[in-house]
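How a chain folds remains the central question behind the approach discussed here. The record that follows shows the chain in one-letter code together with its fold in token form:
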Amino acid sequence: MLPAKTPTLSRLSLSLALLLAGAASAAHAEVAIDVIGGSEISFEGLVQADGNWFDNDLADLNGAGANGSDSEFELRRAELVLKGKGPGNIDWVVGYDAKADKYLDVNARYKFGGNGNTFLQLGQFKQPNSLEELSSTKNNDFISKATVTNTFATARRLGAAAGYGDGNWSVTASVFGRELTRNLAHGSGHGVRATWAPVNGEGNVVHLGLSYVDNDTDTLRLRARPNADLATQRLVDTGTLANTDRLRTVGLEGMWIKGPFKLQGEYYSADVSRYGEGVGDFGGDGWYLSGLWNITGETWGYRSGVPTTGLPDAPASGKWQLGLRYDTLDLDDGRLLAAAVPGGAPRVDGVLGGKQDAWTIGANWYWRSNFKFALNYVMVDSSRYSASAGTVVDDNPNILEARAQFHW
């Protein structure tokens, strides 16, 4: 088993080396390269190294003791991004994650009148849904996105989008196909997201949003990790849903920023259309609510329907944040019936994928312009029908998570 872990340790060592090397360099948000053909080209990167320590209940979240311990260490992301501004109102981006071996944003956008909310876009980009999914990865409030976001939000796909709006409201619509990297997400569809900020001032924002995504799917499996990105086991899982036709997801968003405080929440409802005799449709839903406090007094900005995270007011001591989040996911859409024979196992009518609730307590430290360190503690309560046990089984683990991040 140990040799199989060697590449993981090498990637972790590489990421830590980059983190330490960056400490000796001047702090910059990006590296300017040149102006070619009227386009100002810059280079950005993001390296994240994660550690998870599992206090397992029933399931071994670390993959049946794959490395002989209850911990996991991994290079989470190694993103390399080229960006261009110009010529004119055109901007473009080419991103690649060397850790996941997949393309990130690869697109070009034309902004009408220089307005970032009124545009045409072609290529691969995050689809117009989910406040948390659209927010910058390097500034996520918690190490893992909410369970319901990871399950229902539609991320990057190849397609075309059009947006219209201003600083206080926006409407974005898209059509999309598969993910650019082969053998990943596929299925054509369309989406739309509308946002409105009735209050939009410095350190004082109220945001409301509504989204809808509809895409086709031949087979589908909905499942979720226990708010730990390095966990190899899922505690809630619908199994493979055969004969699926369409997946339709509705999302509701809300956010309130008041000085150093941010309150944010989302609700998702997903409906799966299925065909075939004796096969019923499936529905699942979930939501999260999170609160964040900048202890050092900084606030957030707001642009294009998402919050923006600024630099520390005092770079030498950095910016400190405390956060708390509750999220819940329900993948049960069925019931248990009496056994076909006396003493036999109950029969399942529908799909019983399980329910999962989680509390996450977190602390973030942004140091200077390039570094972020995060520590999270996650408490999970899950329940799912087990065919082998013939009953609903509870599994309630706890996880300690840490992340070191270097961005330029």
